[in-house]
Amino acid sequence: MADVIPRAAARASSGGRNTSARSAGVRLTVDWTACDGRGLCAELLHELVKRDDWGFPLISDQPVPAALLDHAERAVELCPTLALRLRADQ
Ligand code: SF4
C-alpha cells in the first residue's frame, strides 16, 4: 500500500526546493467516502482534475508533474473534507 505524503514531510525530505525529486511517482487520490463533489480541487488544479457530470473529480492517473506539485499540495490542503491526497508510488 502506498503512503500518504504529508506536505511538510515531502518538503523536508527533499530539502524544500527540489520539486522534481519530491514529485517522482507522486499521484493524487480521492477518498470517495469523504469527497463531497463540489469540485474545489478541479478549480485549483484544472490541469490534473476535471469534473464529472455530478461534480465529482476526475483525476489524472499520471504522476503529478514537478511543475504542478506546489499547486497539487495546495489543493490537498484546501480540500474541505480532507478527501484529496498525495500518495507515493511503491
Ligand atoms: S476538493 Fe475535496 S471534497 Fe471537493 S471535490 Fe475535490 S476531493 Fe472532493
SS element count, helices: 4
User: Any idea what the CATH architecture is?
Assistant: 2-Layer Sandwich
- On the 0-100 scale, what is the average pLDDT? 83
- What does the main sheet amount to? 2 strands, antiparallel
Could you give the order of strands across the largest sheet? 1-4
- Write out the distinct hetero groups bound to the structure: iron/sulfur cluster
At the fold tier of CATH, the topology name is Alpha-Beta Plaits
Q: Please report the first level of CATH classification, the CATH class.
A: Alpha Beta
Radius of gyration: 12 Å
Global structural class = alpha+beta
Shape: globular
Q: Can you tell me the residue ranges where pLDDT is under 50 for at least 5 consecutive residues?
A: 8-18
Which SSEs are present, and which pair or pack?
Elements: H1 7-13, H2 19-23, E1 26-30, H3 40-44, E2 49-51, E3 57-59, H4 69-78, E4 84-88
Antiparallel strand pairs: 1-4, 2-3
What attributes characterize this protein structure?
alpha+beta, two-stranded antiparallel ribbon, 90 residues, binds iron/sulfur cluster
